[in-house]
Design brief:
Layout: H1 3-18, E1 23-24, H2 25-34, H3 40-52, E2 56-60, E3 65-69, H4 71-80, H5 86-108, E4 109-115, E5 121-129, E6 132-141, H6 144-169
Antiparallel strand pairs: 1-3, 2-3, 4-5, 5-6
Length: 170
Amino acid sequence: MPKSYKLYKLIILYMLNKVDFPLTNSQISEFILDEGYTTYFKLQQAISELIDSGFIREESTHSRTFYHLTEEGAETIHFFRNDISPAIQEDIDTFLKAKQYELKNEVSVKSDFYKNSNMEYSVRCQVIEHGSPLIDLTVTAPTEAEAETIANNWNKKNQEIYAKIMADLL
């Protein structure tokens, strides 16, 4: 394996090790591509190899992919952490610190849909906090287009929907 691919993989593992929530493909890409470490295609290859080797776990919805660090990945970054230069580690730490709230908020809101046994679509809308659902709502939509609209609107309006539900319930 070229030495640069090893570095890309270690950067991804380091990033996932520094946060207590999964990161999306776009969040990882934002850092690595904006810093100019590699190209999009090389990054995707590195992610794919990390998944294949069991160092990260992939969780996909209809619109996003989340990456979780596995135990094997955590052990690997522990042993090879010093193969990432202190400057790169500092860049990652700065990025994560500056964007922590934004990154965490983005991955704590989840929505997905699937065709159910009634040949309609079930749309699951969640807000996850500390690994547990703060709200977990499933609604039915008659068409795929409506299910997608509900899922997209949940991602945009979840805070006001949650606040309204809680106000009405309490």
